[in-house]
Amino acid sequence: MSEPMNTIRRSLAQSIERSLAHSLSLASGHGGPPGLLAAMRYAVFPGGARLRPRLALTVACACGDDNRALADAAASAIELLHCASLVHDDLPCFDNAPTRRGKPSVHAAFGERLAVLTGDALIVLAFQALAQAGALSPHRLAALVTIVARAVGAPTGIAAGQAWECEPSVQLREYQRQKTGALFAAATMAGAAAAGAAPDGWRILGDRLGEAYQVADDIRDLIANPDELGKPVGRDAALGRPNAAEQLGLDGARRRLELLLSEAIDSIPSDCPGAAGLRDLILAEAKQSYIPKELAPAAA
């Protein structure tokens, strides 16, 4: 990746970490249970790739970003919701995953009861942080809250995506669009809305990137090294979940991944003032974070 791209990534990363730290400070008032706050911080820091908040901020920048505090809060809210979903996803009643991001999962480190409450508290904190930043921009806040709420609830948010695992059968693309794509779509739409742009035209970009990320994750679940990945592999097969690489084969999943990334790039609204730079950033991000390294030679 070129030095300008690395500089942009570092700047975004620093902004995201500052915003997340501020959001967590809202939950650290006097008199709160210390175990809950410790578990919340543990779930958020250190983070993973922070793909969703980076996507929100890059779209906001491309759209003009005239309200950076609101864009930062939207990005932070989306990452807090993602972290909450991981805490709940790892619980014994779902994946029973012992590790996450290279360390014990929250329920393994703090116990199952506190893990459930940690996920719940992070969900509420996401909306609290968004409301605080949006108090000075109420004309944009309603749209942002609606975008984010739809991405996490029913009928097509990440809670619904997780609930499909409780059903006797599931259609792969709907499952992946809800469980993973919904929050990516919220990231692109929230980034646009925070900057004062119409959000609906940004849904396809997030939807396709989210599905692409899930296809890549399915591939990693089959062939990645768990130590490098930071979480167990083979979980989809063990739990009887839909997996794109299982259904399409590795070659078919690779082709699907490349098609989704191409459709994502093509969907960027042409009237966006920063469209060209955004395309470059997403292409660089795809090579860095979306395409599994085991497939990189074939996808190059």
Helix and strand topology:
Elements: H1 3-25, H2 34-44, H3 51-62, H4 68-89, E1 99-100, E2 103-104, H5 106-110, H6 112-134, H7 138-152, H8 158-163, H9 172-194, H10 203-223, H11 226-229, H12 235-239, H13 244-266, H14 275-290, H15 296-299
Antiparallel strand pairs: 1-2
Structurally, the number of domains stands at 1
Q: CATH homologous superfamily name?
A: Farnesyl Diphosphate Synthase
H/I helix tally: 15
The low-pLDDT segments are none
- Placed side by side, the strands forming the largest sheet appear as 1-2
Estimate what percentage of residues fall within beta strands: under 5%
Shape: globular
- The CATH class name reads Mainly Alpha
- In CATH, the architecture is Orthogonal Bundle
First-residue to last-residue Cα separation:
14 Å
**Helix and strand pattern:** HHHHEEHHHHHHHHHHH
- Strand pairing plus helix content: what structural class? mainly alpha
